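--- STAGE predict ---
source: upstream dedup step, 1 unique chain passed
mode: sequence only
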Amino acid sequence: MPGAAQSSRGDAIQARFVDWLSGQETRHSKLVYEADAFDSEWTARCLRQADLVLFVARSREDCGAASSRAAHLSRVGDVSRKPRILVILQDCGGAPPKETRECTLRIPAARHFHVRMDVRRDFARLARFLNDRSVGLALGGGFARGIGHIGVIRAMRELDIPIDMVGGTSMGAIIAGQCALEWDCQRMLEITCRRSAESLERDYTLPVVSFLTGRKISSRVLTSIGENMDIEDTWLPFFCISANLTRGEMKVHSSGNAALSVIASARAPGLFPPVTWDNELLVDGGLVNLVPSDVMREFVGQGTAVSVDVSAPVEYGKVDFGLSFTGWEGLRRRLGLFTRVQRIPGLLDLLMRTLEFGRTPAARLRYLADAYLTLPLGKFRYRDFHHGPEIAEIGYRFAIEYFEKWLASHGRPWERSE
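--- STAGE serialize ---
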């Protein structure tokens, strides 16, 4: 039907063309309409027919021009009430995205994706999202035990389980941020073990607000991620969790400065001072949501949500503090003076463990995850970064065994066609 696409109401061919399009929509579960690059009858029809609208822009394109074009097309097809996705095309072999936040603010969209023209997995990630087949990975907090997440990521990559979206809490936020930047696992392991250990050394201060100044860990995160990178600039959609002391509620960071978001998520109260964000005080997200399965479920929708918990039960032994207890008594028991040597949990050990009470609501919400891994890391303490390679290896071996069984039972739902 030559000329049918640009036909308007009243044209003789219009009715036949509409019937043909209706037949296509009936026969196929999904139909993709590709609009013209300009205002036309066909563009208007595409926007009217669409249930979901994809705006595509090039990374090197002026954001103002792109937003003006998007606004004009929105008026043509009246898509104000339809979900919109922003796809930003990146050059082949290009550097990490920059200044994406400006575009996402000027072109309203429910989600945005970076797609490199020479990277097939970027196109596959977008396709899975459009078909409700995304795979999201939520990583829980646990200080040094969080290094086990690196082993899980390694296992997923080896088993060809895609990671389309990633988020986390505390140490899980740090590892999730590295994953969102597509670091290789060896780089994750080396930098996390070395810099995390360094951040706890020789940073003590007068404990009026906290034991540590937080200067070292902040410097390490800023160096790794970059001071000016926004969450919108990560290759994978990313979020992290912090606890808002001012409001007494959970804060989900899915926009804004990436380094500051990660620092806030891992800011253990008492150990580090709070982070100030919009005149509000933020601390470690483990207080409110240690394993954010619920947030990841919202991200992936009907897709596959994978959660990883590294906060295993801790055995303190038979310790009796009585109704009062002094530091001198604790020191005497530790040294075995006039008694047998006892493992007495210290102030920082107890403080760090209280942060993991966020696992209680997380445990109630674990049903929201399609796969929930609890890594066997109970023998490690919060400062055991020198055991990082061993922790990562345990996470890897556990994940390989878990996912092989899970795949045998569930298959690969992200590859299923409707």
